Write the structure tokens for this entry.
Amino acid sequence: MIVGLTGGIASGKSTVAKMLNDYGLPIVDADVIARKVVEPREIAYKKIVQAFGEEILQENNKYIDRKKLGVIVFQDEEKRLLLNSIVHPAIREEMKRETENYFKKGHETVVMDIPLLVESNLMHMVDKVLLVYVSPSIQEKRLMKRDNFTLEEARQRIEAQMPIDKKKEFATEIIYNEGYLEETKEQLEHVLSKWGIKINH
Ligand SMILES: CC(C)(COP(=O)(O)OP(=O)(O)OC[C@H]1O[C@@H](n2cnc3c(N)ncnc32)[C@H](O)[C@@H]1O)[C@@H](O)C(=O)NCCC(=O)NCCS
Ligand SMILES: Nc1ncnc2c1ncn2[C@@H]1O[C@H](COP(=O)(O)OP(=O)(O)OP(=O)(O)O)[C@@H](O)[C@H]1O
């Protein structure tokens, strides 16, 4: 079984992914892979430099400066879609490859952590959609705190995604991550048991 873990930016996907990993489930993380496929020498790297210019590179090591690129793409939808068109195919391929590897190693369940699962219409890649939900106001507060963003920066990033309330329509199950982590964990265990997924306690 492939579980698609999704949510909004800063809703708690990584937090829930960590819990799932502690239960012994392998995680294929789109954000981690998104970093890997844009390292120098990767095809997507070359395309990004062609499209956005050398200004978006770090001076010392020529890696992509994610902060600079983030500022550009989160205030300009056209540029964000251009970046997506360059990196998403490579991310999807690598995600499929890593997932297959886990199955080959004998895992019965693999978790794909994909922030843009619904936006990119990737529901066909997973068997269940697990949505980590927080209200937009908590989302905004946690995002500002975690990344040291101004309200405007946080809103730009939230607005680059489908509103989290709309994502509920696509979820097989929803986990409310607005309270204590212990409460999130209880909901998670309930869902896993409902789906018949065995976990290490
Ligand atoms: C713009 C970039 C350079 C900013 O890097 P940064 O290290 O600051 O952020 P990071 O990659 O950790 O992403 C943080 C969160 O932002 C959100 N996010 C990232 N990219 C996008 C996007 N293109 N559209 C909407 N939300 C996005 C996700 O919720 C993600 O979890 C980077 O996010 C990127 O390369 N994005 C394009 C690839 C992508 O779509 N990644 C999302 C997972 S597929
Ligand atoms: N139940 C909770 N109570 C308080 N803080 C929380 C809770 N869950 C997560 N957080 C905090 O909220 C922030 C966002 O969580 P996390 O990084 O897991 O979100 P995410 O959905 O993975 O974000 P992104 O889309 O950027 O990858 C983090 O600083 C995390 O420590």
In short: The pocket of adenosine-5'-triphosphate (ligand 2) is lined by residues 7, 9-15, 31, 115, 142, 146, 177, 181, 184 (CB under 6 Å). The longest helix spans residues 77-104. The domain at 1-26+107-195 is CATH 3.40.50.300 (Rossmann fold).
